[in-house]
Every structure is written in C-alpha cells, then in structure tokens.
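Figure 3 (text version): structure tokens given as input.
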C-alpha cells in the first residue's frame, strides 16, 4: 500500500518540495512512498485532501494558519507560533508542527556563529512569528518592523536605528520572483560591514534587499539553507 505525502498550498507550480522529497524517497528505496502537490483554491477543500489518509504533508502559503482548525492537535511550537508547515498522521489523527523555526535557527547559527547581535525583523506575518520564536530561543533581542499601528513602523526607522541593529531579517515577500524590483523600504545607508542581513526569500538567489546590503559591506544570506533544513526536519518527523 502506497504511503502518500504531499504539499498543500495555492500556487505550487515552482515549488521546491515535490522534487526534493520524491528524490529522498527514491534514494532511501522507499518506492511505496509518493509525494504530490495539492493545489487548493480555498481552505474549505482541505477535508477532501486529509480524507485521502495522507501519511504526512507540508503546508505552504496561504494556508499555514488556516489549516489549524482542520487538524486534531498541534505540537507546542506550532501552537505558540500559530502556524503549521508540516503535518504527521499518527493512527488517523493529524498533528501540526512548525519546522520553519528550526530551519531558520540552524541556518542563522551557521551564518552568525557565536554572535548574538540586536536584530530588526521586517514584517509581522506568519513567517515572522516563526523567526521571532527562533530568536527568542537563541536569546537574541529583536524589534519587529511592520506597517501596522502597533510597534515600530518602517517610517520610524532611521539610519542610526539600522546602524545599531547588526542583524536584519526580511520575512516579507518583497523582492520574491517575479516581483524582483520590490524591496523593504529601510534606510540602507545605516548598513555597514558589521551587519548580517538575512532574507527568507530564495528565488531570486540574491534579492535587491540583499544586493543593496552587500554593496554596503554586509554579510548576506538567502533563505535556501533554511528551506533545506526545514524540509529535513519534516523528513525526521515523518520517519521517527
């Protein structure tokens, strides 16, 4: 009997997961495992997919929060973050996990080493919550920047604020393909060679946000290592 896995999302044409996990199943000689893309126009279609008795699944935008009411339980991190990107079926019960924070934590540690710089987190969406959870775990002080009325807004940022925070993390989709000319509106003149600049986006490989930061001397990192690490965490959950 085939063990079915898949990716649940809206537009999945260029998604990383199907090829990645299909290759892993083949390399592990798990020929009775399959991985499919489940493109859903509406979250209300979720029960139909879950009724197929999936062994596990990944969840991507825009359903990481919306899928929660359809699951039987959440692990602690997913409950705190309020977003799920991995599902495991145990005895017919679907449990939601968040492996994004683990993927980010691992890739960030490789990027910054032993340093624990003050951080600016750009954006306050679902991705931001996972990043903040990881920063809390690493005891890194951070300030969330958003367009909302609460907290610090983009228009409040000054070069001196940027200069004082040596880790800057973009959690927004600004600059993602095909909108490669977009970028977070921050005072880039505050960035110098003391900065670590991290973008969760991996397509394109170097966003305008990263390119401008690199021109100012910053060390830069895109989201590809995080993507790999979160996928490996899903793999561990499915095979534990």
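Below: residues designed for each position.
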């Amino acid at each position: 009997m085939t063990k079915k896995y898949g990716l649940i999302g809206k537009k999945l044409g260029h998604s990383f997961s199907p090829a990645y996990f299909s290759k892993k199943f083949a390399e592990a000689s798990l020929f009775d495992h399959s991985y499919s893309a489940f493109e859903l126009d509406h979250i209300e279609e979720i029960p139909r997919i879950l009724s197929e008795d999936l062994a596990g699944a990944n969840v991507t935008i825009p359903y990481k929060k919306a899928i929660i009411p359809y699951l039987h339980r959440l692990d602690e991190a997913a409950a705190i973050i309020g977003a799920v990107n991995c599902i495991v079926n145990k005895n017919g019960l679907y449990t939601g996990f968040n492996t994004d924070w683990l993927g980010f934590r691992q890739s960030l540690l490789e990027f910054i080493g032993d340093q624990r710089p003050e951080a600016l987190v750009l954006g306050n969406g679902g991705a931001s919550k996972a990043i903040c959870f990881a920063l809390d775990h690493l005891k890194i002080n951070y300030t969330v920047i958003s367009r909302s009325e609460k907290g610090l807004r983009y228009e409040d940022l000054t070069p001196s604020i940027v200069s004082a925070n040596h880790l800057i993390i973009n959690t927004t989709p600004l600059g993602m393909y095909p909108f490669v000319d977009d970028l977070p509106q921050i005072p880039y003149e505050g960035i110098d060679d003391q900065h670590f600049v991290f973008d969760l986006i991996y397509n394109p490989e170097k966003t305008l946000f990263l390119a401008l930061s690199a021109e100012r001397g910053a060390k830069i990192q895109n989201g590809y290592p995080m993507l790999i690490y979160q996928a490996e965490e899903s793999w561990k959950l499915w095979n534990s």
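The radius of gyration is 19 Å.
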